[in-house]
């Protein structure tokens, strides 16, 4: 099928064309840049929602329920799963698989799992590009599911307009480990499995941490405190008062859910809507999307440089010749890199080798 | 302190100089390339051992025990923790912290935790550079601890000569999720907390998976089988026979440990020694280290390109000017990237702007 014909079918809303375009883009097959360039002007309409959290937090179940909720509202939904523990990517229990099949048969839903390795240009760059394809196809909501542990996964979460962090009581201690980056990225916190022991404590811990994030110190208050402290948490009260008065401040809500009982999902959808309204009203949406556009360009620039340098047989052969002197300590990686770049200006510019 | 004086102190084995050099290199402070270049000829002596696995697998406890074992053998040990859940990086229980302090007071041990974000050039690149510093300082063993979940973390594991994957019975189901990349990277498997229920099943699953990895199919054998199957596992028997006859084949051993009782550590050290001997005898060590050298150069080249492009105020200003037309769909990230590169040849070459 010609590229033009493929794009015609894509623009006519044909699912088979969508699946093919996503595959071409995800795997960087020939012509993917022309396709993405052709779709570019149609992007920017979908709301991109990131879902992140530790393995076992119930991200996939919540994703499935959000899909159902959005579908009931007449919205078309694309799902990108970059979570190796997600049933969408194959790390599934049978029960989850079966549950997702109902969703998968709906033509208003498109689910794509992304490999978490092999994307030399970076997982976040690949996710941004596949999201652009789904956006251009006309999906109203994009759900991007990622496991909130590694650096690449955090970068993926940052590609969304709104990011929800899903936690469970069992992940109590791991909150300490998440805070390094994931806490800052989250616009909405969801304590899933909220009917289990430890849910209140987890909610308290998160709220306390959000208070600390605002620079309010609690002195010697121990990390694990009773429920009473929550009520008298001055940071929380101050934030709630500020939020009520000033819509320009976003207070990340800490929601509860029991996804297996379908509880808490409509509250989550409402919070996502509130956050999107906040993003729009304050100009934050425009700023975030402009930043995303800049990242799209830098992604492409860096990928082109890598392709032009490392797919050039002369450069590779030259580098091979330098390895013995590097191994023997007669040269250094820096000297070799400098020389390589001195002789690569035309290559990087995209010009033919003379 | 001048750079020369710092290197003199470093070469004289002064710990304070080591700590300063590591900081300069890790944070890419002024002069870090000159320092790394100066140390380059002294690298290649330390054995680099990667320790990876899911959070809670006991990686840090095993790291501490390995440190003790190596110290008892008179070896100097450097530890690089790139695991946000590691006590070395601050995600600690008090008990772990206290346990590590004994180790930290020993001048024959150097412990460094690396931030898991902010290293634009990539965590693996930064780890390779810090490891080079420790190698040049004269440490005999480098232990590189990383959480085996994300892509960056996997890349870090690949920087080692030998990599051990630590699993626990609790991580049983997650073996499915690990296999995508971590299984392939591991030279040694350690089932920690081997006195807990499920340890035998986990060991069986790993061995079965290793058998499958060799391309032997088990037909309809279910994933969770009885212990008897292990005994009649044809792939395992075939691999063991092959390993006994042919030292050129490495069979990843599946070891057991109860780190909290200090059990299984000497077996792990012995397996690491066997693996290193295998690497040396088969020429694999030289091949792996040559590959690492090539990666060092490509790391530096790509970082230099990024620095030269994205720290150039003219380029940034020009890119800013393109954002409106990108947002309005009049231009595409690919067209902008192409133009940016066409005008950046001299910049990438490292020449002064005219």
Report what the structure shows:
Two copies of one chain form a homodimer. Chain A has 354 residues and is an alpha/beta fold. Chain A folds into three domains: 1-41, no CATH class; 43-282, Rossmann fold, CATH 3.40.50; 312-349, no CATH class. Chain A contains 17 helices and seven strands. The first copy, chain A, has helices at 3-11, 15-26, 32-39, 59-72, 94-104, 123-137, 151-157, 175-178, 182-185, 199-213, 227-231, 234-245, 265-282, 284-310, 313-327, 333-342, 345-349; strands spanning 47-53, 77-81, 109-113, 141-147, 162-167, 188-191, 254-256. In chain A, strands 3-2-4-1-5-6-7 form a seven-stranded parallel beta sheet, with helices on both faces. In chain A, strand 2, helix 5 (94-104) and strand 3 form a beta-alpha-beta unit. In chain A, helix 1 (3-11) crosses helix 2 (15-26). The longest helix of chain A is centred in the last third of the chain and has 27 residues, at 284-310. Chain A is globular and about 65 Å long. Chain A starts with a helix and ends in a 5-residue tail after the last helix. Residues 88-98 and 213-232 of chain A have low confidence and may be disordered. At the A-B interface, helix 3, helix 7, helix 14, helix 15 and helix 16 of A face helix 3, helix 7, helix 14, helix 15 and helix 16 of B.
Keywords for this entry:
354 residues; 17 helices; 3 domains; Rossmann fold; homodimer
């Amino acid at each position: 099928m010609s590229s033009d014909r493929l794009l015609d079918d894509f623009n006519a809303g044909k699912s088979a064309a969508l699946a093919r375009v996503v595959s071409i883009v995800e795997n960087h097959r020939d012509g993917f840049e022309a396709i993405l360039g052709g779709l570019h002007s149609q992007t920017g309409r979908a709301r991109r929602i990131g879902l992140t959290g530790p393995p076992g937090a119930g991200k996939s179940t919540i994703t499935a329920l959000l899909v159902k909720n959005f579908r009931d509202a007449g919205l078309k939904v694309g799902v990108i799963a970059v979570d190796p523990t997600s049933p969408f990517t194959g790390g599934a229990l049978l029960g989850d698989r079966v549950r997702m099949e109902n969703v998968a048969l709906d033509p208003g839903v498109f689910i794509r799992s992304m490999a978490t390795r092999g994307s030399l240009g970076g997982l976040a760059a690949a996710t941004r590009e596949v999201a652009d394809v789904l956006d251009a196809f006309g999906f109203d909501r994009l759900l991007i599911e990622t496991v909130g542990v590694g650096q690449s996964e955090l970068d993926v979460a940052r590609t969304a307009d709104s990011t929800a962090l899903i936690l469970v009581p069992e992940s109590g201690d791991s909150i300490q480990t998440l805070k390094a980056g994931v806490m800052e990225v989250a616009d909405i916190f969801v304590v899933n499995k909220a009917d289990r022991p430890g849910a209140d404590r987890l909610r308290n811990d998160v709220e306390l941490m959000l208070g600390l994030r605002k620079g309010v110190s609690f002195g010697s208050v121990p990390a694990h405190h009773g429920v009473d402290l929550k009520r008298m948490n001055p940071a929380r009260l101050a934030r709630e008062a500020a939020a009520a008065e000033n819509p320009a401040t976003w207070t990340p809500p800490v929601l509860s859910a029991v996804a297996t009982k379908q509880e808490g999902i409509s509250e989550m959808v409402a919070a996502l809507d509130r956050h999107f309204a906040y993003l729009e009203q304050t100009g934050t949406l425009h700023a975030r999307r402009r930043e995303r556009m800049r990242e799209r360009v830098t992604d492409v620039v860096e990928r082109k440089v890598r392709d032009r340098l490392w797919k050039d047989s002369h450069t590779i052969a030259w580098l091979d010749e330098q390895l013995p002197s590097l191994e023997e300590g007669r040269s250094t990686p820096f000297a070799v890199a400098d020389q390589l770049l001195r002789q690569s200006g035309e290559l990087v510019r995209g010009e033919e080798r003379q």
